[in-house]
Design goal:
This protein is mostly helical and 436 residues long. The protein has two domains: 38 residues; 342 residues, Cytochrome-c3 Hydrogenase, chain B, CATH 1.10.645. Helix content is 53%, strand content 10%. The protein has 17 helices and eight strands. A three-stranded antiparallel sheet has the order 1-2-3. A hairpin with a 2-residue loop joins strand 4 and strand 5. It is globular and about 95 Å long. The N and C termini lie far apart (69 Å).
């Protein structure tokens, strides 16, 4: 009897477990149906009836170039709707800056677009300099241009390598990272760090260029041009590359402007807008360079624009280095810039300035400014509102990756999933640039 009673108890427990599993499955189904209903108006009516398939691409997919989730509505292989979903990398950088003094906040900007940290440093420093009317010596301006163009090349090398790898061209990925190492080595000579160097500071630079930087730069300027030609020859007339890029992800000029696109993605559609030319900063008006433009606004044109941009960047660096002025590398305005270490043993006033600037920072007027520059991805802008004290009231960055992700949905419609991989690569997004 005891054995029969135990068997009955086990059978009852199994029945209860099966019933609980069915109820859990029913709850999950109800939840999922509720989520589909929430997408009404964002996807077609066919998705609500199950006629088309809803599929997540990312946030762990390698071809989304970061933690980007794309909710795709598919009719077979064709994309009916593409809904970008961001926020998986949110770091709260803008909010954190509000609790930092201005000099200390520079280090946070490095972490946004982590493939071009100096562009982030530059726009933030320029906003501070504009707000407090802080001068920047000519030598610092020229070195900033050199570093910004090296950053542009380094960023484009990562874009080219990963974009080509997404499309099956592995060799270009290896070559691109090989050349990028030379640039990162030069950044280490300047700042002590390969990537997050915070080399630009309000009023100029952290320190002057080092003795080994000049020979390394001269060697790079001789070494790099043939390499760019090699990348172009490998891909420009490659039949597979042409099949994957011609006529894919076409963006008309009017659409590109309406969607807020900028940089190479905008110029690939034939719109001649480059902030370095239109609104020069840091002495860019002194240098001769062309603005490459596309004709059709497709993936191929965006590829060619960036290839040509690397050539133009090398030309700008060569010009800036050939006429690099002598003089100070940072402003001598001691209300905002710490005195040189050599002065600390000779001047009590220098000691006081040093102590006050590193403990309290400097005060900025209760006013607001907006500054924009041309980053490798497009227009990066900084809105800065002071408090009259040593921390900002509000800091907000307008970043190109955010704008381009918002346009991605429309660019993808009507294409295949394989085409979407190429389209994502062609707009060169960095999720740290978007999730701030």
């Amino acid at each position: 009897m005891a054995i029969e009673s135990q068997e009955q108890s086990r059978a009852a427990a199994r029945a209860e477990a099966r019933e609980a599993a069915r109820e859990a499955e029913a709850r999950e189904l109800q939840t999922w149906q509720g989520q589909v209903e929430e997408l009404r108006g964002l996807v077609s009516d066919r998705a609500l009836t199950g006629e088309t398939l809803l599929l997540n691409m990312g946030p762990h997919h390698p071809s989304t170039h970061g933690v980007l989730r794309l909710l795709l509505e598919l009719d077979g292989e064709e994309i009916v709707t593409c809904l970008p979903d961001i926020g998986y990398l949110h770091t709260g950088i803008e909010k954190n800056i509000e609790s930092k003094t201005y000099e200390k906040a520079v280090t946070l900007t490095d972490r946004m677009d982590y493939l071009s940290p100096m562009s982030n440093n530059m726009v933030f420093c320029m906003a501070i300099e504009k707000l407090v009317e802080l001068d920047v010596p000519p030598r610092a301006q020229a070195v900033r241009v050199i570093c910004l163009e090296l950053s542009r090349i380094a960023s484009h090398l990562v874009w080219l390598g990963t974009h080509a790898l997404d499309m099956g061209a592995m060799s270009v990925f290896l070559y691109g990272f090989r050349e990028r190492e030379r640039i990162l080595d030069m950044f280490e000579m300047l700042s002590g760090q390969r990537m997050m160097g915070s080399y630009f500071r309000p009023g100029g630079l952290w320190r002057d260029i080092t003795a080994e930087f000049g020979p390394a730069l001269a060697d790079f300027l001789e070494y790099m041009p043939p390499k760019v030609e090699d990348y172009e020859l490998l891909l420009r007339n490659n039949p597979l590359w042409i099949d994957r890029t011609y006529g894919v992800g076409v963006v008309e000029p009017e659409q590109a402007l309406a969607w807020g696109m900028s940089g190479p993605s905008l110029r690939g559609s034939g719109v001649n807008w480059d902030i370095r030319k239109a609104e020069p900063y840091s002495g860019y008006e002194q240098y001769e360079f062309n603005v490459p433009l596309g004709d059709h606004g497709d993936v191929y044109d965006r590829f060619m624009v960036r290839i040509e941009e690397m050539k133009e960047s090398l030309s700008i660096i060569r010009q800036a280095w050939s006429k690099l002025p002598q003089g100070a590398f940072r402003s001598d305005n001691r209300k905002f810039v710490p005195p040189p270490r050599a002065e600390l043993g000779q001047s009590m006033e220098a000691v006081i300035h040093h102590f006050k600037l590193w403990t309290e920072g400097f005060s900025v007027p209760d006013e607001e400014v907006y500054v924009a520059i041309e980053s490798p991805r497009g227009e990066i802008g900084c809105y800065l509102h002071g408090t009259g004290g040593n921390t900002p009231r509000r800091v907000h960055f307008k970043t190109p990756s955010f704008m381009h992700i918002s346009a991605l949905g429309k660019m993808a419609e009507g294409h295949f999933i394989a085409d979407l991989v190429g389209i994502i690569g062609s707009i060169d997004i960095v999720l740290g640039d978007s999730d701030r």
